[in-house]
Amino acid sequence: MEQLATISEKSKQGHILVVDDDIKLIDLLQSGLKSEGYYCETSMDAASALELINENSYDIMITDIVMPDMNGLELTKKVKRIKPDIKVLIMTGFNNFSYDEAIEADASDFIKKPFSLKELTVRIKHIKMQEELHRSKKELEKRVKQLEESEERFRAIFDNALDGILVADVETKKFYSGNSMMCRMLGYSEEEIKYLGVRDIHPEEDLPFVTELFEKQVWREKKLAKDIPIKRDDGSVFYADINSFPITLSDKTFLVGIFRDITERRRAENLLQESEEKYRRIVETAEEGIWTIDAEGNTTFVNKKMAEMLGYSADEMAGMHLFTFMDEEWKATAYVNMEHRRKGIFEQHEFRFLRKDGTYMYALLSTNPLYDSNGNYIGALAMVTDITERKKAEDRIEHLAYYDALTGLTNRNLFIDRLTQGIARAEYSKKVVAVIVVDIDRFKSINDAYGLDAGDAVLQEVAKRLLSSVRDGDTIARLGNDDFGVLLIDIADSADIILVIEKIMKKVSRPIQFDGKEIMLTLSAGISVYPYDGKDASSHIKNADLALAKAKQQGRKNYQFYTQDMDVKATEFVLMEKNLFNAMQNEEFILHYQPYWDINTKKILGMEALIRWISPELGLVSPGNFIHILEDTRMIMEVGEWILRTAIRQVKEWQRKGLTVVPISVNLSLIQFRQKDLSGMIEGIIRKEGLSPSFLTLEITESAFMQDTGLTYSLLKSLKDIGVSLSIDDFGTGYSSLAHLKRFPIDNLKIDMSFTREIAADPDTASIVTAIIAMAHTLNLKTIAEGIETQEQWKILRLLRCDMGQGYYFSKPLPAEEIERLFLGGTTEQKAKT
């Protein structure tokens, strides 16, 4: 019984049926409406909904347009045939759904997805308010009709001399005669009235006033007395209006009073006043704005809420024309809507008003024409809901749908749309359209090194620089994380594309200052040109991406135009990526080891661990063919850790066999160097495998050192604290400064093999190598020359006082068992074969 009472009580607030096949939406609506005080039931299909409608009484049904067994409009029509009084609110995700469709199905309103609970409850309250106003209007019309009928009845009585008439002697104030209506009014016979006087037909408390009034009417100072209480024979009282005038008969003066019983009229007026007060309370406390205008568009009434919405008082708005509250853009729309009202068309539509302070208010209007008793159009009534915040939210959503939130650039969707339009335009203009995909080199490393805020600042600055590098008619878009699209339209000559891309590369590839630090930037770019490289937008973006991948493979910091063979290479890249993933799972990687030697004594001083891939399909694969793929896919993180662990285990294995071993060198890529807690990972492996840190040397490329010198210093220091040695790999290609080298806690410089190859043939190269060796020795660093392949190169490097050498002249990279047999079988004093 308690549960039934609760349901009954909530039903008074609103009994709602929600029909939708989305269980999540049903649950959200049910809990949300319950929190707002409504009693809510649900159904997931039209058939069960119709059963519930037959069995129960609902105030409102909320239904989706799209349903599995019957759409929402068909369901609405069937429900209205069963329960005509139920109100229906239609939910729709279609942007082109109109109120006319809802009205045609006899629905009260519709709401577009997505929507908030607040918006939904506003729509529900709006529907209930319309229903309440409709009932109040009917009640008012009924009361007015009763009053009109009453007035017509009294008018008929007057026309037929049915008003009460009394003739009183002026001197005695006694009645001389009264007509039959007067007799009926007072409850006396005509004979009994002759024995009565003024004092007998008025209540005692009113006699002084009535006596004075009688005298004034005799002397024609007052003819009409309104709302005078009259006492009947039975003591009851009725009210009358009295019109009187003196007459003289046979030299005797009489006062003739015509009495009109206004008791019923007074009661009807009181009822009407009560009804008006009720209506006014509803209107003034409504959460929606209520606005009425006359036939010319002048304001006849606004409630407090409506005035507040526009920043006026109700008195200020009175008489002001509708056009006062809108700019020129919306006046034409308002005029059309006013004409619709004249034709009796009911409408619900969105409108924009101009507030008193000059700001805009977006509103949802439900308007109805108003007519007088003769059916003539006299104006319109509007229910106004402020939807300004909703419109702002919709604008924000629309902006997010086509623009990037971080940079403000167009996004991929809008870029594709503009590219499609540009291609269509180029078909007629016979001009060229270029699609350039620009990528920030090693952007992940920037995020890792400087943090996400720095990454965002870089993206925003790159966006600004790109915008300043192109014409106003061109488009810059953010296509992905650090990928930007550049759309060049109406290009007369393909050579102009090169001018633009070189301008972009030069302008964007400049350092960025962030939080007192200098972030180095380089770009890679791929270019696809219409009509040569594709016919539609998607193919051009794909081909520009392929060209970008080619640019990255070429060492980054460059741009590439699309060529047809890139499709083949892209397929090969995808296949290679898959094979490399399988290689990790199937343990297809092995390590080879290449010694490096004292350049004078040819004594082995260390070995570099180099990865090789034994593919079941491809055989032995050189690292140059797959390392870049590991880096691009970030598989290098997992593979790099495997290399480190395997190399350390191999040294421990040689120690277990009693061999005299040398330090092992392991390369760290830029991605590895920037990974989180690198030193912790390395120290953990060393401890677990039980190897002395002095037997491990880490090689890091020069370009990795220069990304962020402050961060690089702290990373190198943390590695040195473990006890490992550090080498700068490929030295001479990364433009390190002496100031930086002095700060870094490094042990060796590995001179890039490009210098070694040219040292015998190019005196300038020999001079550079001489300078590198001298600089290194000044800083107490050892030098290792990479790529020594001839005796002549060895001799020159020995003369230049290089410390160590590595290359095929001494030994090529070899499997562990061959290294053990050839070089570690005896002692580390073994010499290289020459």
Structure commentary:
There is one protein chain. With 834 residues, this protein is of the alpha/beta class. The strands form 6 sheets. The protein has an 8-stranded mixed beta barrel with strand order 23-24-26-27-28-29-30-31, surrounded by 4 helices. The longest helix has 43 residues, at 117-159. The termini are far apart. The model is unreliable at 1-11 and 826-834 (pLDDT under 50).
Précis, in short:
With 834 residues, the chain is α/β, with parallel strands linked by helices.
Give the SSE layout.
Blueprint: H1 2-13, E1 15-19, H2 23-35, E2 39-43, H3 46-55, E3 60-64, H4 72-82, E4 87-92, H5 99-104, E5 109-112, H6 117-159, E6 164-169, E7 175-178, H7 180-186, H8 190-193, H9 207-218, E8 224-231, E9 237-249, E10 252-261, H10 263-285, E11 289-294, E12 299-302, H11 304-310, H12 314-317, H13 328-342, E13 347-354, E14 360-371, E15 377-386, H14 388-402, H15 412-429, E16 432-440, H16 443-450, H17 452-467, E17 475-478, E18 483-491, H18 494-508, E19 512-514, E20 517-519, E21 523-530, H19 537-553, E22 559-561, H20 565-586, E23 589-598, E24 604-615, E25 619-621, H21 627-632, H22 636-656, E26 664-668, H23 670-673, H24 678-689, E27 696-701, H25 702-705, H26 709-722, E28 725-731, H27 738-743, E29 748-751, H28 753-758, H29 763-778, E30 782-785, H30 791-799, E31 804-805, E32 814-815, H31 816-822
